[in-house]
Hints:
Elements: H1 14-26, H2 41-55, H3 60-93, H4 95-101, H5 107-118, H6 125-157, H7 186-193
Amino acid sequence: xxxxxxxxxxxxxxxxxxxxxxxxxxxxxxxxxxxxxxxxxxxxxxxxxxxxxxxxxxxxxxxxxxxxxxxxxxxxxxxxxxxxxxxxxxxxxxxxxxxxxxxxxxxxxxxxxxxxxxxxxxxxxxxxxxxxxxxxxxxxxxxxxxxxxxxxxxxxxxxxxxxxxxxxxxxxxxxxxxxxxxxxxxxxxxxxxxxxxxxxxxxx
Length: 204
């Protein structure tokens, strides 16, 4: 007698097979081409998982779009971090110069002076950041639109579910009220008690 364990043979339903296929493709995705050495790959995987759970892709094409949506979001967050650190770096480098010109410089003024320095014609860092951000935002919006269109088409092509049969009110396991016949009327009681021509009571 074999000691090998018997397996269930995998998912049987169409929905189960579809989820299995999506999971297989999902695990083929890696962040090696997206996540930088200074970034956390675990956070990127969590972002992929969240987007997959939220958008529920039903085909491989939909899953590709969901993956690219997550990549766009990841790169947008990177740009926001770069912008913040660019401001901090500029303010640190120009601190002595700014303090000499403005002895009582406020934080808001220091930030404005850093922005002016980064937006200077010879410094293209801020303009480049804004251009990248605009491009990624537009791409994200277009991908989201494409995904919704594909999912609407797929759902419209799916066969409609058969309506559930109407419940039988005479057959129920609930503890609701029991259906009983109506009580006899007074006329019916009189007929049942009155004898017929042979002297026998009338049988209903």
